[in-house]
Design goal:
The chain is an alpha/beta fold and 341 residues long. The chain is 55% helix and 7% strand. It has two domains: 151 residues, P-loop containing nucleotide triphosphate hydrolases (Rossmann fold), CATH 3.40.50.300; 139 residues, Zinc Finger, Delta Prime, domain 3. It is built from 15 helices and five strands. It has a five-stranded parallel beta sheet with strand order 2-3-4-1-5, covered by helices on one side. α7 runs antiparallel to α8 and α12 packs antiparallel against α14.
């Protein structure tokens, strides 16, 4: 069970217990590319399998789920649209009244639940409030605020965190990735297995961490120079994100959305790498262990511990602002100016 999931042991163990007496609706919440949809799909496999997926080899039900043609697993996508609208929601409601074809349960999986319009979510609300005994909804989104509170309150929420780097690295090694590269990918992914897997073949991944760790020596208090540096950073990240999803079987709109998400994820990972430079600058002067053992020690001791801690806090605040969808170039320009001050 949950063999395709990287990490998330606590969540999968809980879902195995949940499968014995499942709720009527679940909301999987967490950062992009951490495996929410994978976990939700595996949960659907457990729910629909006559043996609860507790077997050595896939049964007919599990094989059909893996190939995407199980009649009782209904996946709701965007179908080339920008959102999931009222018409799709009404079709879901109508289908939910029908009995399962093969299994005892019919499962609706909505991997992009955050794309439901408010009107569509309201159409679904009555079905979530008064579901049939044979219907289970699995909604996946990055934030609970993506959906109306009335919908959230009808779901059992599964909060999913990022995956430890060592687990991602271990998975990459099991897939035959060279050890040094597996370590680099795990670091850059920032706890997002999807990002690490998407970048396995990228030749520039080794430079990503290095570029971020060199930034402290390139900062300037002049806003103009900070703006140029911000533009340069965006120029590192965006192409990397594009290549990470280039091999995916996605429509044009889906690829654009995934590129935006991967860009944001890589930007957050980069800022976290930058924060570790300042955390190490404080740590070395207090005799604490370093995270980046390959950094020149003279550079780390050139900044006071007080300022290093302040800069770490500034970066963490910037990450929060980044997640609030503030203008990225302006955010980076302001951050770099403040870090140099």
């Amino acid at each position: 069970m949950f063999e395709s999931v990287i990490g998330h042991a606590r969540v999968t163990e809980m879902l195995i217990r949940e499968a014995l007496r499942p709720a009527n609706s679940y909301l999987f919440v967490g950062a992009s590319s951490i495996g929410k949809a994978t976990v939700a799909t595996e949960f659907a496999r457990v729910l629909l399998c006559p043996q609860s997926a507790d077997h050595e080899e896939d049964c007919r039900s599990c094989r059909r789920i893996r190939t995407g043609n199980h009649p009782d697993l209904i996946e709701i996508g965007l179908e080339g649209r920008q959102s999931i609208g009222v018409e799709q929601a009404r079709n879901i409601v109508q289908t939910a009244t029908m009995m399962p074809v093969e299994s005892e349960t019919k499962v609706f999986l909505i991997p992009e639940a955050g794309m439901l319009t408010e009107q569509a979510a309201n159409v679904l609300l009555k079905t979530l409030e008064e579901p049939t005994g044979s219907t289970i909804f699995l909604l996946v989104t990055e934030s609970e605020t993506d959906l109306p509170s009335t919908v959230n309150s009808r779901c059992r929420t599964i909060h999913m965190g990022r995956v430890p780097s060592d687990l991602i690295e271990r998975h990459l090694l099991s897939e035959g990735v060279e050890p040094g590269r597996a370590t680099a990918l795990a670091r850059v992914s920032g706890g997002r297995p999807g990002v690490a897997i998407g970048l396995i073949t990228d030749t520039e991944i080794d430079e990503f961490r290095t570029n971020w760790l060199r930034l402290p020596g390139r900062l300037s208090e002049r806003p103009g120079e900070a703006a140029l540096l911000a533009a340069e950073v965006e120029a590192w990240v965006a192409p990397l994100a594009g290549r990470a999803v280039s091999g995916s079987d996605l429509t044009k709109d889906e690829r654009q959305r995934e590129e935006r998400r991967t860009t944001a994820a890589l930007m957050e990972s980069g800022l976290e790498i930058l924060a570790t430079w300042y955390a190490d600058a404080a740590a070395i002067q207090y005799g604490a262990p370093l995270r980046n053992t390959d950094l020149p020690l003279a550079e780390l001791t050139a900044i006071s511990p007080k300022r290093a801690v302040r800069n770490t806090e500034l970066i963490l605040e910037a990450i929060a602002d980044l997640n609030a969808n503030l203008r990225r170039n302006l955010l980076l320009t302001n951050l770099f100016t403040n870090l140099a001050g």
